[in-house]
């Protein structure tokens, strides 16, 4: 059955666009830097939020703690991040980029920006993007405020 309501159509467009964009960006990051999109997102987050906890990363990306911890383990194995003791809570660690991780993020961010320009520019003008951003930001904020979409397990 076809989507009929505005909300159904909006959901369909958002999900399909997100999937296609995420896949295309991920393919380019993998080809150019040997990382997948989720790794890039974690690394980019840590570049902007140094010394974060696994729980902080999990909450930001609405991903389970276990999956986030495994993702960080993989980044640590590649020596792109390191865990350091959390001086405020001895039960947890803080995650930070290594010099190699910082170099990777810098290079991958350039690729990311170029790929977004390639993907979005033919379809959306800068003015349209600026109009759309507050609407999507309000939707995201409303979902985050009510803890909607967080993993339950």
Automatic annotation (TrEMBL):
One of its GO terms (molecular function) is DNA-binding transcription factor activity. Gene3D superfamilies: Winged helix-like DNA-binding domain superfamily/Winged helix DNA-binding domain. InterPro entries: HTH_MarR-typ, MarR/SlyA-like, WH-like_DNA-bd_sf, WH_DNA-bd_sf. It comes from the Bacteria. One of its GO terms (biological process) is response to stress. Residues 7-141 form the HTH marR-type domain. It holds the Pfam family MarR_2. This is HTH marR-type domain-containing protein. It comes from Kutzneria albida DSM 43870.
């Amino acid at each position: 059955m076809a989507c009929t309501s505005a909300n159904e159509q909006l959901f369909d467009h958002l999900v399909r666009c997100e999937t296609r964009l995420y896949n295309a960006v991920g393919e380019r990051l993998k080809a150019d830097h040997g990382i997948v999109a989720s790794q890039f997102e974690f690394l980019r987050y840590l570049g902007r939020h140094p010394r974060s906890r696994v729980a902080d990363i999990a909450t930001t990306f609405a991903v389970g703690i276990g999956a986030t911890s495994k993702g960080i383990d993989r980044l640590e194995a590649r020596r792109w991040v390191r865990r350091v003791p959390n001086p405020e809570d001895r039960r947890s660690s803080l995650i930070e980029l290594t010099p190699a991780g910082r170099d990777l993020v810098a290079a991958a961010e350039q690729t990311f920006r170029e790929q977004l320009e390639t993907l979005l520019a033919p379809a959306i003008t800068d003015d349209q993007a600026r109009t759309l951003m507050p609407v999507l930001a309000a939707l995201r904020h409303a979902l985050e405020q009510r803890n909607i979409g967080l993993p339950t397990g």
